[in-house]
Amino acid sequence: MTALDKADGATILRFDNAPVNALDLDLLNVIIDSMRGVEGAVVLTGAGRAFSAGVDLRALADGGTDYAAQFVAALSEAFLAIYDHPAPVIAAVNGHAIAGGCVLAMCADVRLMSGGTIGLTELSVGVPFPVAALEICRAAMGTSATRAALGAKTIDAETALARGWVDELVGKDELLDKALATARELGAYSPAAYAATKSELHKPVRAAIDAGAAADAVVRASWISEETRGRINAFLESLARGR
To answer: Is the pTM of this model over 0.90?
Structure first.
C-alpha cells in the first residue's frame, strides 16, 4: 500500500494504491505506522499518475458502520501523523491531490507540484470535514481556505501556486529530485531546533484541534450515518452515469 525508500538524507513515503492512490483503511494505517516509525526528513509522493485522489468512496460505502467509524478515526490520525512529524516533510505532488489527498499535501512543511488538480471537494460528496483536516488546511491555505472548503472545486497547479497552496511548480521529471534536495537542505538544520520551531508554529492549530473534540464527534456520527452512505452512493452513481 505504500513504499518506504531510503534516499540520501531523507525517506520517500510513496502512496501506492492503484489507480489513483485512493485512501482506504489499510492505506491510512500504513501511513500512520510509517510516519510514526520513520526518523528524519520525509518526502511524500504518489505512485503512478496521482498524488492521491482522496477517500476510497466505494470502500466506505460498502464497508458498513464499523468500517466507516474506523476509517474516519484513522483519517484524522493519518493527517496528524504527518503534521506532527518533528523533522521536515516535503510533499512532492505528482498529480491530482483531491479531498483527503489535498489535505495530505497540506500536512507537509513544503509543497512542490508538477501538475494535475488540487482541491477540497468533500462537500460535493456530502461528508463533513474532520476538525484536524479543516484546521490544518486553514493554516496552510490562509484566507483562501474558506473558498476551498465551501466551494468544493479543484484548481490547476498554476492557480494553486498563485493562492499559496503550493510553494513551487516543478517539472515532472525533476519533482522527486527537487523534493529530496529540499528535504536534505531543511534536514541539515539542528533536528532539535527544527522540531521545537515546528512544534511552536503548529501550536495554534493543535490547540484548535484539541478544542474541537465535540465537533469531531458530530463529524464521526455523520460519516457513519445511513444518510451519508446514501449520499456517497448517489455520488458514485452520478459518476458512473457521466462516464
So the answer is: yes
CA 146 to chain centre: 17
Of 4, 73, 1, give the one whose Cα is nearest residue 36: 4
Phi-psi group of 94: left, alpha or beta (phi > 0 → left; psi -120 to 50 → alpha; rest → beta): alpha
Range 129-140 burial, b when 16+ CB lie within 10 A, else e: bbbbbbbbbbbb
CB 170 within 8 A of CB 141: no
What is the sign of the dihedral through the CA atoms of 165, 2, 236 and 70? negative
User: Is there a contact between 172 and 94 (Cβ–Cβ < 8 Å)?
Assistant: yes
d(CA 145, CA 110): 17
C-alpha grid cell for residue 2? 505504500
What's the confidence (pLDDT) of residue 211?
A: 97
The alpha carbon dihedral of 130, 135, 136, 137 has a sign of positive
Residues 204, 206, 208: CA angle, nearest 5 degrees = 70
pLDDT tens digits for 47-64?
999 999 999 999 999 999
Alpha carbon distance 181, 170 (integer Å): 13
Give per-residue pLDDT as tens, 91-112. 999 999 999 999 999 999 999 9
